[in-house]
Amino acid sequence: MPDKVSPIKALPPASRTYGAIGPHSERPHWGMVIDQERCTGCWSCAVICKSENDVPLGAWWNRVLTEGEAVDQPKEEHGHLGMDWLPLTCQHCENAPCVKVCPVQATYHRDDGLVMMDYERCIGCRYCMIACPYGVRVFNWGQPERPTPHETGMVAARPLGTVEKCSMCVHRIDEGQVPSCVWSCPSQARIFGDLNDPASRVSRLAHEGRVLLEESGTKPSVFYLKPRRKREL
Amino acid sequence: MTAGTLPLAGRRSPRRSFSRLAVWVLALCALTVVGLAAFAYQVANGLTVTGMRNTMMWGQYILFFMFFVGLSAGGLIVASAGRLFGVAAFKPITRLAVLEATVAVMLAGIFILPDLGRPERVLNILLHANRTSPMVWDISIVITYTLLSMTYVWLYTRADLARGGSPLALGTGTSPREMARDERLKSGLAWVALPSAILLHSITAWIFGLQISRTFWHSAIMAPLFIASALVSGLALVILLALLLRRFRRIEFENDLIRYLGALLAVFLVVEGFLVGSELLTAAYPGAEEAGPILRLLTGNYALLFWTEIIVGLVVPFVILAVRRTRSRPGLVALAAVLAVAGIFVHRLNLMLSGLSYVRIGLPPGVSVGTAMPASSFASFHWYVPTVVEWLVVLGVLAFGALLFTIAVLVLPLREREPHAH
Ligand code: SF4
Questions:
Q1: Domain annotation covers residue A165
Q2: What ipTM was predicted for this assembly?
Q3: pTM of whole model > 0.90?
Q4: Is A81 among the domain residues?
Q5: Which residue of A142, A193, B179, B383 pairs with A200 in a disulfide if CB–CB is 3.0 to 4.6 A?
């Protein structure tokens, strides 16, 4: 992530306390559990992600899919109506297809398991987008457009002609804060923490969860808890 | 003097054919400049001026890249097969085939550039090469192959260049010892060139075929399929160029050769058809979700393209070439060759579109398109149409290739000189 004086330090203390990363091991592997039972499909995480990371118009790092035919349309299951969402962003795979194919190592692993981008090195070949089975990478097709000329994000803007994607808010993690999608979720459907620490809440829940496209062997660091209750209408 | 000095002398007077040549060369130069201008415009504005978006992230440039890789591999396979398996009949067109291969692989390399979002950083591929990236493997083999086929062209024309006193002979002569060395080198090179031609094509296939994200591509048949397509399109283009250059009296051969090549092309078409069919059956047989991309290919938005590939690109040329009567008429063989080249082009287009238009997690609203849109910035399907800029860039590269080829044809002796002419 290109450097910029971190505005995270300037956050009000209450926010910093609420967003602090809990206890973790010496050598953490950051991961996330998303509880589909709790997700209400409100898109808060997707929207705060856009402003936190100053994601250009037309591009999203994080989006909320509806499990069904159309956005926010209930589906019928065994005579009941149900409506579930699948918030989707970079899965920070351990066996990341994008890292394998990038010809210039512009996308790479950090020691803590995060899949990172070097925007100064990326040649914009989009091979990583081809390789990603989750479709979470976005390309700067033109000069990135933003609703205001002022940089509103907490990180530097990415240049034309490069691929960008969710960084798990690495600028916040490095300041001891959870990613902003975790912080902002009104129903606390996102649990962030250290997968290397067996006692952490995220590790315990990850065991109960599933990963997306497991058969592809990508070993994501993001886990999902299935919806557990049927809503009756 | 045989073919050494007359520029593209047809039956017309030298002066008239010279002015025609001048018009042709000038037109190619102009088109190249237009292509460069379009490329500059694209660099200034970004790839937003193309028809590609996040929903279809590769398009015409990569399509032409793989198409030209195919054309080149085919050309050299023809040339070295002639040598390795002693098919003497190939001899009059061997030089033409290696020249065609050289120009084609160079164009393939060039086509990567406009596809990059940051073409000025292209050297990063050498500076920070990632060993696990098929794209790095491919660029390495493209460079190797370019050098190899240039050597090939030189080796095949060197002696005649020396006889004509051309500086391009690089000071080599025609003593019996040097001639014997030529033969040794040619045989040696054929043993390197044939495997690297096969490798070039397989690696290009693996760029696509190793991706678990694209179920339609993720198949072991991709490399054999790419080799088959290369054989078809490469040979077909060699046939066309041979007929064309015979018209311009740059090379000479009997119609028998065309009949022979036509029969070979028919065999290649069968192999291609067999692999395409086997791939489709394997992918479609499980039914339901797995068959999604296939069904879309057979009946969906791109169905017309698919059936064009099969009928116009495979069946019709095969019938023309399989029947002895039609195969004996060079005009009809040329028609079959045009259809075969076009068919392979459409085949690759289909491969690209069906591979990319299928999102693995296809839940609504889909993936973000990538540029500001009036209504929704999400889509799960994208009807890709190349823009004028993309066409101009492609035309520019093609014109540049034709220019290179024309110059090479004028400068290099494509016809073997009879030893007694010396
Ligand atoms: S677009 Fe950039 S990050 Fe992605 S593979 Fe190409 S060079 Fe690597």
A1: yes
A2: 0.92
A3: yes
A4: yes
A5: A193
